[in-house]
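User:
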Amino acid sequence: MMRSLWSAATGMMGQQFNIDVISNNLANVNTTGFKRSRADFDDLIYQKLNIAGTTSASGAQNPTGIEVGLGVRVAATARLDSQGSLKNTENTLDLAIEGEGFFRIQMPDGSTGYTRDGSFKLDGQGNIVNSDGYQLADAINIPADATDISVDSDGTVSVLVNGETTPQEVGTIQLAKFVNPAGLSAMGTNILIETPASGNPTDATPGESGTGQIRQGYLEMSNVQVVEAMVDLITTQRAYEINSKSIQTSDSMLSVVANLKR
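Assistant: Predicted structure:
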């Protein structure tokens, strides 16, 4: 069977996966704190028909060899952690990180999740929680009689209690930083979890140890660039079509061979 059939088939499967990645990026264009992904590819092994540097029958050394590749495979999906634009919401508990770092979320199983989504709320007990009701790992509780909440750029949370004129500090939001944030594993609901590839988290006060600062009343939007994603979608579609043409061409050549008559 012709090698081109299998090589082109791997190309079609690779481009299908690439479309899956791009489609997920576009689907999350309005997801708070979402980071777009990119598919990385590797070429497959090569069939070597003649090795470069070998000596021919005449005693001359072959300057080049004869080798043909056997297609492509998906090597990785890389998450691109560039800063998304900040949107002013004027909501007291909307927080954005300007720079590196992640908010720490206490998961139901006791583990810690990490997110760039700072659209927080208060639950019935006054705890600061995310949209799924998971508390900030900093365990900050807002008094029921608080009339105003202030979050400084260094994560200090202060409240103004009814009847008082001096704000009182109720806690500090810490940020987590990773050596390799691209190694974090996405769990859905805007939550990432630690993996051996990401390394252990380093908790720090916002603005220190390389972490960004917190902006109250803002949300970090998705870093998906729609125009760029649409161009990638078009080029991927064309690459898929070109690989299908390779299969059709190989099929036509096999048809000619099959119909040869003496």
